[in-house]
Predict the structure.
Amino acid sequence: MAVRFGYVGCGFVGQGVHIPNFLGIPEVEPVALAEIRPQLGEKVQRRWGFRKLYRSHLELAEDSEVEAVGVSAAFSEQSAIARDLLRAGKHVFMEKPMALSLAEGEEMLAAGQEGGGRLMVAYMKRYDAGAQLARQYIDEFRADDSMGTLFYARNHGFCGRQWDAGFRGRIETADEPRPEPGPPRCPDWMPEKHCGAYVWYLQQYTHNVNLLRWFLDAGDDARVTAVDLGPDGYTGVVVFEINGVRAIIESANTTHFGWDMNTQVFFENGWVKTTSPPLLLDNVAEAVEVYRGGDIQQISHPLPDPIHSWCYRREAEHFVECVQSGEPFRSTGEDTVTDIRMFEDIFRLWTESQA
Ligand SMILES: NC(=O)c1ccc[n+]([C@@H]2O[C@H](COP(=O)([O-])OP(=O)(O)OC[C@H]3O[C@@H](n4cnc5c(N)ncnc54)[C@H](O)[C@@H]3O)[C@@H](O)[C@H]2O)c1
């Protein structure tokens, strides 16, 4: 049975990434689109063949024909959109961050429990074929102990100019005003002057925290132990204990020509490392390096199967498969709430350091 699909938000990410990916899956039936801007909505509806068009996600939430919905919008908008859809019983695929505060995240989970909708948060790195291969090696080395103790993990994320890989997908535009999104709703305890820095750090490094937790199979067993971020609340180092392992994230925003991000998991006798392509680079997976120390020193660069695939397309496929089968998502809302708790903790420590 095809999944009766709706989408909310005809912005860059919706049009450029998710709508084409979902509608490229044969088991997806494009039922309804919601977009505040009427002309833009009509253009995107026509282009992608959604049967119905709504002006707001609330109208789409009432459409009983729609069973699953994709959502991408501004940080201040998308949590409430997803919450309303979950409460209406829709299964929701949403962009990160899930929410800006733990309270908002828990409200969303409660809405899902109330309405019966299930939430997947689009952490595309968990669906990257190279990252999945790296995770297999990490699991294997932990299980058979052939690499000794896993004692350290490091994520280096200095960003760069080409996160979108010069992406030039054709995006419909319309000459009509867009209602300005409201201000972000930061956690209640946070001084207002720190809200901007918090949202900026969170929206970027939520990918990195989420990936480290997944590589280390940590679930909710993750906490922040030290924060050394500069006055911008962005540049520096954060230290974690994740599933009993010391881990760090190095963050900065440089003019690197591509996308300067890699993740390395260290064992006593070697490591597993992934190096990221620019985020939107289609059909290129994380590069994997496995180093084995000991008597015969060896570095290998295993390739994933398939070698060429796009993590954003794979996450859409995963969502559809899980909606059809009832299997749990690999990046659930319940799991993601841990990231939000950790970001609040990072900024609690950073706020203290700025006093
Ligand atoms: N995973 C990634 O690599 C990645 C990369 C970039 C951005 N993102 C995420 O994507 C999101 C931003 O997406 P975007 O750039 O497409 O946003 P956008 O603001 O350009 O588009 C959102 C659209 O939603 C519409 N909209 C807002 N509220 C609505 C409502 N209630 N009902 C119907 N339509 C509504 C707006 O009019 C707008 O057209 C952010 O959350 C960001 O974190 C993720």
Notes: The chain has a mean pLDDT of 96. The CA atoms of residues 79 and 99 lie 5 Å apart.
